[in-house]
Fold each of these.
Amino acid sequence: QVQLQQSGPGLVKPSQTLSVTCVISGDSVSSNRAAWNWIRQSPSSGLEWLGRTYYRSGWYHEYSASVKGRMTIKSDTSNNQVSLHLSSVTPEDTAVYYCARDLSGVGDAWFDTWGQGTLVIVST
Amino acid sequence: DIVVTQSPDSLAVSLGERATLKCRSSETVLYDFNKKSYLAWYQQKPKRPPRLLIYWASTRESGVPDRFSGSGSGTDFTLTINSLQAEDVAVYYCQQYFRTPYTFGQGTKVEIK
């Protein structure tokens, strides 16, 4: 059974970098079947896909245009985890951040497993 | 980006009755080569992450009660909840995975009348 356990600070100051970690159990971050996505949810924007990382004989990353240039996803094979780093945050980045798995490596790209969510508030 | 629009925004249904939720994509999410629509449905309860209900527009995820069913193809889709139960009170989202950026509808809130 795949489980995703998230952690991260609940409060970040404007202009700083927001970081959230997702520890994977029951699957491998470097699986050729899976991709590891970051999705956020806010009352103003609803559910918003931010980006994903996956391994297919090499690491690949995709980012939404809304955060491209500010967002980096890192993969840590030693600790079997992925992390989201979003720089230069503003109050508009306040949201619940989720990691989620899809199995796009075998053509199944829906999100079948989600982390519990991490509320991040951007405020002074 | 593919825009996904759900209707209605909220819906009140009596216990045991049927709930019908709609989802429309701004362009087709049907792949000609496999005749599959790249559309999923999720249920979200307060303070919880979304839960996958349906994928390929009509395939029920393992463990999902059979009162939940999905239909549609191309750009127009429906989630039907037959015989609504109290535990079905939630917000329901559709999502296209035809291409990135993956996009979600704004959600339909289902309540008990």
Amino acid sequence: GDSVTQMEGPVTLSEEAFLTINCTYTATGYPSLFWYVQYPGEGLQLLLKATKADDKGSNKGFEATYRKETTSFHLEKGSVQVSDSAVYFCALDSWGKFQFGAGTQVVVTP
Amino acid sequence: DVKVTQSSRYLVKRTGEKVFLECVQDMDHENMFWYRQDPGLGLRLIYFSYDVKMKEKGDIPEGYSVSREKKERFSLILESASTNQTSMYLCASTPGLAFTGELFFGEGSRLTVL
């Protein structure tokens, strides 16, 4: 079945460092791809999405590009802030059923 | 804004108790979902529903049942709670099957079974 694999955490960074979280997927069709973020004590919220190959999703300085040839959707941010400390989930939507990765905890220190 | 409300943020129950987790959404969404979230395992789909009185098993339905008597309400039921059901439970909704967009999540219900 469809699945998502993302890099394990925790990832610990200093403020203003570059962040990359790798995500790859397996799917039989052409799913939409998402990054969700969960801040401490809160529910998940959508960070960005891409619905077709070569689309780039972006929000709050984060970016991810839908790469069909490598089945990847890596999340990047050029300069992280302490407020970016959270758990990040890669996900795909295949015909209304969402599959999530295990989540990557990111800790940004001042 | 879409609001998905889970009635209990924190619950503590004993082994063998029957547990009800309630979820209500206020945007007339067709689809509703129950996930459990465990460290290192991400979110796993328990059950989902595409319409009133309709339900489908997700990836880990064992030990759970659901009820959807009204469009806005989707309940998760643990008939006889066990310690391995200690987890964070997340409810979510989307407008419909053809919708290619985000899941709208509630804040979660953290269940501890003693």
